[in-house]
Each structure stands twice: as structure tokens, then as C-alpha cells.
Amino acid sequence: EAEQEIDFFFPQEQTLAVIKPDAMEGHKEEILGEISKGGFTISHLKETVLTREMAEEFYREHREKPFFSQLVDFMCRGPCLMLVLTKENAVEEWRAMMGPTDPEKARETAPQSLRARFAKDVLENTVHGSSDQQHAAEKIHFIFGDISADSDVLNEADVVSPPL
Ligand code: GDP
């Protein structure tokens, strides 16, 4: 009941965030701290090493791009942390926290962003975030399955869910 009232005034939105393999090597805790400071609620999280097949499916929109195989190699190189973030306007707000795809551009236009601070180059760029609500729903389903009936608040069962 109370939850419904909150949703009426501040409609919650979900987005999929990924801490990519480059950032898992040294910036995971700091990025999680930023997510929390940014006011996002983490409803689901899962650390996993993607298989090639999964990485290819995850980025299938880019399969014709010249960098596709590099991108798949990179995403399978080590563990990723997958997160469902909930907040009003979550898709746009998480994209803003990430900054532009290319960290050189990020350093010029969004120096506080995660990519400006932590990314090595346009490929190894620290974080992923859905570009719109449709993609968010699709990719959340791909990674976490059907979570539509779950609470927006993380519970222990989500944390210990088996790897993909
Ligand atoms: P994003 O939504 O900001 O992550 O950017 P895109 O959807 O355009 O690209 C997906 C991912 O592919 C990026 O996050 C990068 O890891 C990688 N990528 C994008 N553009 C390039 C590029 O020009 N060269 C290379 N090597 N990788 C790229």
C-alpha cells in the first residue's frame, strides 16, 4: 500500500548496469560506492564470467561492427558484475554517471563520470548501462530471468543465485 503511493509520485525505473572486466580488477568497490551515493537501489546483483555465446548475444546489436570480436573477447576476459539499478529516471541517470563511450571525450565533457575517471580506452571503458527502457527490460531478462515479481529491495536469495 505505502509502496504503491511512493510509485505514484516517484515512478521507479530499472536499468541494467554492468561493471566490466577492466574495472573489476581495481575499481569495483569505488563504483559500488558511487552507485550508492547516486541514490540507486540495487535490487539484483550477480558476478559472472560471460561465455562467448552470452557476450555475443548481449551485444548482438553490434554484431556488424568492426570491433565486435574485440568487444566479445574483452567482455569474456574475466568476471563482470551485473546489477539491476532502481531509481526514478534510472536509465538516464546511470548513463550520465557513466559518461560518454570514449573516455577521452568523457574527460573533456564529463570529468566526474566513471569512464572519465577509470576507463582506459573506447573498448575497455569500465561500465555498461542500458540505453533505453526497452533495452533495459530485455537485457535484465537475459541476465536475471523473470524478476518482475521480485521486490525492488535486494534480498539474500538474489545475491547467492547461481552463476549463469
Ligand atoms: P555504450 O552504450 O556507451 O557502451 O556504447 P555502444 O553501445 O556504442 O558500444 C558498446 C561497447 O562497445 C562500448 O561500451 C565499448 O566497450 C565498445 N565500443 C564502442 N565503440 C567502440 C569503438 O569504436 N572501438 C572499440 N574497439 N570498441 C568500441
From TrEMBL:
Origin superkingdom: Eukaryota
Active site, renumbered: H128 (pros-phosphohistidine intermediate)
Entry binding sites for ATP: K20, F67, R95, T101, R115, N125
Family to which the UniProt record says this protein belongs: Belongs to the NDK family.
Protein name: Thioredoxin domain-containing protein 3 homolog
Gene coding for it: LOC115822757
